[in-house]
Amino acid sequence: MRASTHPDCLRVAVMAAGRPSDQAAEHVRHLIAAVAAGRCPRCGDPLGRWPASSTATPDGCVPVCIACASHEEWLAEAKEPPATPDLWPLDPDKIEH
Ligand SMILES: [Zn+2]
């Protein structure tokens, strides 16, 4: 599953949040590298054996740790703005682990 993360999906999400394309490409490389290393691209923690799908891309192609998946759900329910991938990795203190 982890290999199926789509760089294009992430790049679109990062650019939609306002990053210029050259910066977005570089940022996406870092996020993809984190996933390849088994780390959650959203917080840097280990992904664990059963990562969840981030809501950051429309097709859910980005794996995140369970804590981040819960955090995304919580933000949505609280009608808070989502933490878009241009802000990743997030400060772990802002995520309930
Ligand atoms: Zn995470």
UniProtKB/TrEMBL annotation:
<feature type="region of interest" description="Disordered">
    <location>
        <begin position="78"/>
        <end position="97"/>
    </location>
</feature>
<protein>
    <submittedName>
        <fullName>Uncharacterized protein</fullName>
    </submittedName>
</protein>
